[in-house]
Write a structure and sequence with these properties.
Elements: H1 2-20, E1 26-34, E2 41-46, E3 51-55, E4 64-68
Antiparallel strand pairs: 1-2, 1-4, 2-3
């Protein structure tokens, strides 16, 4: 169990490092729906399959849009 926890922590840290490297960049995002945490925001995925939550109009649904990444978390931007 301890070894699994160490592996999962290493994976989380690596994912966060990759996400932090995307901050400040503009990424193409396919808009897939509304954010799970904030219904006033949209959710989409980058070309490298990372989840991005951002403000936007529902008319952008199912379109590719350019989004500037401002904040990074281990599992989303």
């Amino acid at each position: 169990v301890k070894r699994l926890q160490e592996l999962q922590a290493a994976i989380e840290a690596h994912a966060l490092t990759i996400s932090q490297g995307m901050v400040g960049k503009v990424e193409k995002v396919l808009v897939t729906g509304t954010s799970r945490k904030d219904a006033s925001e949209l959710m989409g995925r980058t070309e490298c399959n990372r989840i991005v939550n951002f403000p936007g109009s529902p008319r952008l649904m199912h379109q590719l849009v350019d989004v500037r990444i401002t904040t990074a978390f281990a599992h989303s931007l």
